[in-house]
Every structure is written in structure tokens, then in C-alpha cells.
Amino acid sequence: MSDAERRDPVDGEHLLEAVDDVGDAQEGPARGMRVLSSDTFSASDAVGGVRGIIESVAPGMLFVVVYIATGQTLAPALVVALSAAVITVAVRLFQRQAPTQAFGGFLGVGIGVLWAWRTGDAKDFFAYGLWVNVSWFLGTLLTIVIGWPLVGLVVGLFSKAGPLNEGGSWAGAVAWRQDRPLRRRYALATVPFVALFGLRLAVQLPLYFSSEVTWLGTAKLVMGVPGTALALWVSWLLVRGSTAAREPSRPLPGP
Questions:
Q1: Which of 142, 147, 126 is nearest to 201 (CA)?
Q2: Which of 151, 179, 225, 255 has its CA 20 to 30 A from that of 58?
Q3: In whole angstroms, how far apart are CA 193 and each of 72, 98, 166?
């Protein structure tokens, strides 16, 4: 093995946290995709646990509740949503825990608050989330079209041959591309994510353009964390055992 291949394994936790930092924690499945390489599926792990759900859902839910309770007044709803996001980050910092997941949600909420405040239109609180879904939809679809399905990349990354494990390498993480049936399997397992983001856009874009703020916020909550968990579960069902299937067979011991 060459010196380049003997590098220390990549820190997978920090790698995925870096992805989460630049997106809405409720919209993108980056953190939960590590469960695709697990032998068992945990819905809690897939969505960041109970605390992760609260941090992801609370700002948007409070925005809708306060917006309705104040007779569709924008300012109080924005203040409450942003305050909730700030509190989630502050609590993690106070407890000396990694604030990455909360910060990812704070970034999305902050952009939404700024967008809606500048336009004066409550529906724009959700505009950033829609763009995130557009990005994920096009990105996941593109990975299938070009023959590098996202699920294959994730599973390869966490496989024994991948760079997150001692002795693994980036070349080992994409060795599955030489196996055509396996490549098709990973492409099929990426389809649930394309469908998830496409369905979100199909439902939420008409609500956005018709300024149905309450229904838009409700749709985002319903199709957010639950939708992500469902897509991850279906994808996991399609790929489980695929890593073991690629392990080369060993000769039987002699008599």
C-alpha cells in the first residue's frame, strides 16, 4: 500500500458536521445518511435524536403558531423563531456540547428571518428552505445521471475499505463503481431522496406562490423530519448488506 493510502482515517463526524453547518437541519439528510451503512436502522439516529428533532422543528413551528396567534403579524413571528434558534445554540454552548446541528438550524432560520424581514412577506421565511430542496433535488438526481449515486458514495465512505476506517482509502470508497449491479442498486437507493425533494417542491411551491403561509409552514413540518426519516429507511432497506456482498470470498481451509 502506498504512503498516500496509509493516511490517518478521515474524521467522519466532523466531515458530516461540516456539511450540516451550511444547510437547514430539517431540509437536508446529510447527518442521518450515516445510518445507511449500519446493520440496523434507527429512526432516532437518522434524524438526530429527540433533541435534534426539537432543534430542527421548534423555530418553524413557533413561527407558524405565533403568526396565526397574532393575526398574521410578521414581526412577532420572526422574533420568536429567531429566538428559538438562538436558544438552541446557546444551550449547547452552555452545556459544552458541539453546537453544530443547532448551528445548522440557526443558519437556515437566520436567512429565512432576514429574507422575510427585508421583503415584508411572511412566505419568504420559507424561501431559503425551498432553495435548499431545489439544490438537493437537482444534486441527488445528477448523481444518478452521471453514474455516481449519492447513496453509493455515502456507503463507500463508511465501508471498511473507505477512508473513515484504518487502512481504508478514497479509492476503496468508490470501488463499487466497478460492479454494475451494485451501481444500479445504489442508484435505485438514491431515488427515495430524489422523490422526497421533488414531492416537497411539488407541494410547497404552489403554497408559496399562492401565499398560503399557514399551510406552507404546516407542509414543511410534516414533510421535513418525518419525510427525511422515511426516505432514509427506504434507502437503507435497499442497500443493507451491500457492503458484505462486496467482500471477496475467502478460500475454504484445507482438510
A1: 126
A2: 151
A3: 33, 27, 30
Of 87, 57, 65, 63, nearest in space to 75 by CA: 63
Task: Compute the distance between CA of residue 187 and CA of residue 242 in angstroms, rounded to an integer.
Answer: 13
The per-residue pLDDT for 103 is 73
Cα-flanking dihedrals φ and ψ of residue 186, to 5°?
A: -70, -35
- Report pTM: 0.81
Say if CB 140 and CB 93 are below 8 A apart: no
Q: Which residues contact 90 (CB under 8 A, 6 or more apart)?
A: none
Q: Buried (b) or exposed (e) across 2-41, using 16+ Cβ within 10 A?
A: eeeeeeeebebeeebbeebbebbbbbbbbbbbbbbbeeeb
End-to-end CA separation in angstroms for the chain: 32
- The DSSP line for 77-145 is HHHHHHHHHHHHHHHHHHTT---HHHHHHHHHHHHHHHHHHHHT-GGGGGHHHHHHHHHHHHHHHHHHH
Q: For helices 49-69 and 225-239, what crossing angle results, to 10°?
A: 150
Task: Look at residue 30 and tell me whether its pLDDT is greater than 70.
Answer: no
Specify the amino acid at residue 177.
R
What's the rounded Cα separation, in Å, for the pair 137 and 49? 25
